[in-house]
């Protein structure tokens, strides 16, 4: 009896041939003989993978009657208990001493859908977690020990640095376990926590080791913001200012008009700021055409080339949000000096940053490197190396519109730094 033979095309389409045919394969040629193969001998593998994940905003996420966490975990497989391993930023744990008890009570209340594999595990918070690869090893060991596989969940509660580092471990374990982020800072709720990047530092190089790995879900609980210091809470607003400057002039106007309320942490104003900033970041990632940064442009990193270098020069004595504020002011002034941005616009930006208590200058901007040039300028080369390709820096063409350039004039940038220094001196003298 003749049976249909199953065959498939190089594009992955299946077809049934009847009756079966005897294939007439060409004779195998040595590799050397195929060195100049025709283009028709090259087969392209193409496929698309759709990514989707919810970004939600709530309060009291571990309240027993708040089903958000249980719902997002079981959204595809509702009829079984899902195994979860929870990690908590040490800074959050210190300011929320009953958090572990509340987590355990939540899992007990939702035992039909959730299983807690171990008591919540505390990990170091802040930039130190990204500088020490031992934490990555510890989390990978936890994934192995507790049997976290690709259908189990790693739940990470913490600031941007902890989300970055443990997100990398989640992407590495079994080539990717399901990650749920619970960002606890303004900076991570309105920016880094909603994206697709995970990374740690390596030998002083910011985010040198990392992956692009979309999370299973991002759940923003505004109540976590109460655990922050005033300094950290304000610093996170810098990323909202950044994305407003390159994407939404009306949002920048709103930030100006509500600066006093933001500085006083008015809950409603803070929530609007975080939601809109997160939305703009998500739009760029989802619709910008380059979510995994295969090109040479990083528009969401306006102000960051100097910020990353400044963090390193100060040995992280200055926080990321504060460094970004300085980078924003610096590139705004440079945009004016090069004729891209109308004169006077940089004053509005500087006023807003200062009104929120954010810095616009740091003395390390004046530090000289071994070559006698400003050390911060080496950040341009490091920024280019991180992406590859040509140098691409986002500047401002208007308040709300970014503009990419491919070279930076060092003399003009030095003049922009001098302008910021003079501004800082005027403030000190006042």
Automatic annotation (TrEMBL):
It comes from the Bacteria. Its EC number is 4.2.3.4. CDD domains: DHQS-like (cd08198). Residues 1-21 are annotated as: Disordered. Keywords: Amino-acid biosynthesis, Aromatic amino acid biosynthesis, Lyase, Membrane, NAD, Transmembrane, Transmembrane helix. GO terms for molecular function: 3-dehydroquinate synthase activity. Residues 236-363 form the 3-dehydroquinate synthase C-terminal domain. It is an enzyme of class 4 (lyase). It holds the Pfam family DHQS_C. Residues 121-232 form the 3-dehydroquinate synthase N-terminal domain. Signal peptide: none annotated. InterPro entries: Dehydroquinate_synthase, DHQS/DOIS_N, DHQS_C. The chain crosses the membrane at residues 152-173. Its cofactor is NAD(+). This is 3-dehydroquinate synthase. It comes from Salinicola lusitanus.
